[in-house]
Amino acid sequence: MTVRPPEPARLDDTDRRILRALAAEGRLSNADLAGRVGLSPSPCWKRVRALEARGVIQGYGARLNRAALGFPETVLVNVTLESHSEDTLARFGEALAAVPEVMQADLVTGDHDYLIRVAVAGTRHYENFLRDALYLIPGIRHSRSSFVLRELKSETSLLDARSWP
User: Fold this and answer.
1) Average of per-residue pLDDT across 110-132
2) Are 108 and 114 spatial neighbours (Cβ–Cβ below 8 Å)?
3) CA angle 125, 128, 133 (to 5 degrees)
4) What is the C-alpha separation between 111 and 116, in angstroms, rounded?
5) What is residue 53's three-state secondary structure?
6) Per-residue pLDDT for 25 more than 80?
7) Do residues 158 and 15 lie in contact, with contact meaning Cβ atoms separated by under 8 Å?
8) Which domains does the chain have, with CATH numbers?
9) What's the rounded Cα separation, in Å, for the pair 33 and 35?
10) SS3 74
11) pTM of the model
12) DSSP characters over 123-163
């Protein structure tokens, strides 16, 4: 079964202003948002609902400070699996989704099968994560880890990205 990505949403300048404002401050009231983007509240509310319905806005949430929560370190883990069967990939993905330290996991091309972003309290915590979580998942051939020394950029505004032919 081939899964096709959705067509990119067509956004006008007003949609982009709404998205920039909400990306910067998701707790804006509709009245404040409308004022910032130059609309009256009713059309602004309709546009936000339409962006949500089209899947451009996936949801709202708070950005948490991992260091303040006791997880200041980030580790990038490259994982190679023994098999690439649908069953192995599905079981591995389900197991990773259940591990709270895993912030992101991507099936990738190249020398490894997955790139996993993990939040930990430090090296001892990471050692425990390896032994008590990652290495208990069946089907792993090997892994390679790199601690992030400094995060240079963590978010992006795709609204300003160029569209390549």
Assistant:
1) 97
2) yes
3) 120
4) 14
5) helix
6) yes
7) no
8) 13-53 (1.10.10.10), 73-147 (3.30.70.920)
9) 5
10) strand
11) 0.84
12) HHHHHHHHHHTGGGSTTEEEEEEEE-S--------GGGSPP
Residue showing tokens 């939040």: 119
Query: With contact defined as beta carbons under 8 Å apart, do 81 and 92 qualify?
Result: yes
Q: Which amino acid is at 114?
A: Y
Q: Tens of pLDDT along 50-108?
A: 999 999 999 999 889 999 999 999 999 999 999 999 999 999 999 999 999 999 999 99
Alpha-carbon distance of 23 to 119, in angstroms, equals 23
Distance from the Cα of residue 86 to its chain's centroid: 23
**Average pLDDT for 23-34:** 95
- Cβ-contact 132, 68 below 8 angstroms: no
The span from the CA of 44 to the CA of 51, in Å, is 11
Closest alpha carbon to 129 in 111, 141, 143, 109? 143
Largest CA distance in the chain: 57
